[in-house]
Specification:
This protein is an alpha/beta fold. The chain contains nine helices and ten strands. The structure holds adenosine-5'-diphosphate and magnesium ion. The site of adenosine-5'-diphosphate has 10 residues, from α2.
Length: 252
Amino acid sequence: MPEDFGRKWQDTVQPRLEIQGLMRRFGGREVVSDVSLSIAAGQVSCLLGPSGCGKSTTLRLIAGVDMPDQGVIRVDGRPIVDARTRVPPEERGIGLMFQDFALFPHLTVSQNVAFGLPRHAPDRQGRVAELLERVGMTRHADKHPHELSGGEQQRVALARALAPRPGIMLMDEPFSGLDDRLRDDIRDETLAVLKAEGTAVLLVTHEPSEAMRMADEILLMRDGRIVQSGAPYTIYNNPVDLRAAAFFSDLN
Ligand code: ADP
Ligand code: MG
């Protein structure tokens, strides 16, 4: 496949998520500065950068739990945030997954997955069954979270987040609570499920190895800015500067 295939394909398709000039200031300091990005359906972009560089703040602005001081956010071409617009979080069609995802302890696996679906949604049970199948948890459907391993709980959390078919999924270091042996498997499985669902994904991580493994595109962030973006091996082979090179050098 030619190296620029992804880029050309992306340019011809309406982006699912499009952000222009996003800025957020706390106490006079710009924590997010002029962030622009674009993600198509089925594409995984990784916002990669050291702790404190502004990744989680960026995600919160997109999710709608915080408001930018400047910038435009569009979903399928429709502005959800601009100078005049602020669509509430629950109407954005955006799913969220965080590290300390919590399943409801008193609900079964099926009930946890069904939780995000309207009670009278058509084929609610069918959707739950389809997702449990996708994440390989069908035989655990009637168990409670405390009967599951960490990796199994993670699979259920993914199914629950995907249940309402969000067009966009924001993931903030969702794998950092898992032990090393499990993590690669869960990453690969998660990626496969997200691709099968055609979701546009913005995955936040401070680990270069995670971004290299999962991303179609890496957005390298530093001090609130995206300093370089591109396909993983393009960035790895052509780091923008010494700091970027050093950041990737401890890749294992
Ligand atoms: P990351 O997720 O990349 O580790 P964050 O987005 O959490 O970084 O934080 C970026 C910077 O913004 C940090 O210096 C953090 O202390 C600061 N920050 C985040 N939220 C707030 C807030 N509500 N008020 C003031 N400062 C904040
Ligand atoms: Mg963070």
